[in-house]
Amino acid sequence: MSKIEINNVYKIFGSNPQSVMPMVKNGANKEEVLEQTGHTVGLDNVSLKIEEGETFVCMGLSGSGKSTLIRHLNRLIDPTDGEIIVEGNNVMSFNKEQLIDFRRHKMSMVFQRFGLFPHKTVIQNVGYGLEMQGKPLEEINKTAMEKIEAVGLNGFENQFPNQLSGGMQQRVGLARALATDSDIMLMDEAFSALDPLIRSDMQKQLLDLQSELKKTIVFITHDLDESLRLGDHIGILNAGKLVQVGTPVDIIMNPADDYVKAFVKDVNRAKVIKAKIIMKSVNEANDIDKSNLIKVNEDQFIEEFLPQIVCSNSNCEVVDKSCNNWHRCNRNRVDHPLFSS
Ligand SMILES: Nc1ncnc2c1ncn2[C@@H]1O[C@H](COP(=O)(O)OP(=O)(O)O)[C@@H](O)[C@H]1O
Ligand SMILES: [Mg+2]
Fold first, then answer.
1. How far apart are CA 152 and CA 175, in angstroms?
2. Where are the domains of the chain?
3. Which of 64, 77, 78 to mutate to test the pocket of ligand 1 (most atoms within 8 A of CB)?
4. For ligand 1, is residue 30 a contact (CB within 6 Å)?
5. pTM assigned to the model
6. Domains 4-106+182-267 and 272-339 share a fold
7. What is the pLDDT of residues 139-195, one digit of tens each?
8. Ligand 1 centroid to residue 246 C-alpha, Å
9. CATH 2.40.50.180 is the classification of domain 4-106+182-267
């Protein structure tokens, strides 16, 4: 069973959404529907599955339906048609109490504009979700401090949000989302308001945290580099339609249409493809020269180790975080078709 399943979801905004459903189901596009009925198509027959422990990135231009999609997951928005299944439960079947419980315990959300309470300190902001869960103060503060440390904000716990930079405020947002220990984290353009260097730091931090925590993350962005860096799978929305779902490599190598092609045309592939994508299993790589092996982590991007292996004419051994599961990556694999367009 997938952690999240979205089945044939439509969302129409306007005065009488049901009345335009036949037209949308017959294939009218967003522009036609708007022109002829004044209704806006938010989502048009979107189906996808998100697996436990993965980071699923939803990407698309502004207005393509990303926020609409993510808001269906915790029922901030109800679909016009279709179903949303989380851990086997149809979220539309929840009564009021079940829905409150679901939002408090199952999902946490990180927003683009941080969404912090200005009158609460860092530790109070981080502990907010636990307070809502009715946890005792001592436990709230203990957990909040652990999460504050996890995002590198020790020493700032008694500051107020306006005393912190944007990047630090978003770390508070992240710590708050982590504090409730929900399995699913929804992040809507969470890093889009940050300066590029800080944004890159936050991406790294999220990758580091995720390698330990293995939460199910639904991350929304309009930025391809960010999608490729963070996503195990990426879904691409255009005018409410899901036009492609795939791994970063699928998206780069086989863009489904001109819209996706336009996104990927300038991408530096060595920057976004990790060692684990091009490695061969030990058995398959028995024949490679082992006299001059360089050890690389499975999550290192090719750009990070390519100069080293080219200059020293070596091959790589690819290892996971705990140096288990050895695989080899032949130098020639770096001349894989991935790298010729
Ligand atoms: N509450 C709403 N009322 C009317 N139209 C909406 C509403 N929310 C979103 N839309 C429309 O739905 C489409 C998708 O919006 P949104 O999901 O916010 O896009 P994104 O997050 O990709 O920028 C847009 O055309 C937007 O104008
Ligand atoms: Mg949005």
1. 10
2. 4-106+182-267, 272-339
3. 64
4. no
5. 0.84
6. no
7. 999 999 999 998 899 999 999 999 999 889 999 999 999 999 899 999 999 999 888
8. 24
9. no
